[in-house]
Amino acid sequence: MRIEKSSQSGKTTVYLIGHFQSDHVEELKKQLRENGPRFVLDLKEVTLVDVDVVRFLETCRAGGVKLVHCSQYIREWMNRERQAGTP
Question: Which of 17, 24, 51, 78 is deepest in the core (most CB within 10 A)?
Fold first, then answer.
């Protein structure tokens, strides 16, 4: 997993690249704390996630973090987790 970041006009975009697993969540939480409310997660190059990551991404989305370039399988999994009541 690799995390890259760019800021423009007060908005920070964090690019996630590769396999994103539960042991990477803490680093991403740190990025969220450091970069404030105008935060975008770009998931274009995420190739694999686990259930803890899906739940974390759903929590981020529900909290106002914008998710872009999210693959269909991750979105569908997030929707299933939300419907099951497991944010």
Answer: 78
pLDDT in tens, 14-47: 999 999 999 999 988 887 888 766 789 999 999 9
> Which pTM does this prediction carry?
0.86
Amino acid at 11: K
Residue 50 gets the label, from left (phi > 0), alpha (psi -120 to 50) or beta, of beta
Answer yes or no: are the C-beta atoms of 70 and 54 closer than 8 Å: no
58: domain CATH number is 3.30.750.24
Question: Of 48, 49, 43, 87, whose CA–CA distance to 68 is shortest?
Answer: 43
- Strands (DSSP E) along 1-87, which ranges? 2-8, 11-20, 39-49, 66-68
What 8-state DSSP symbol labels residue 4?
Answer: E
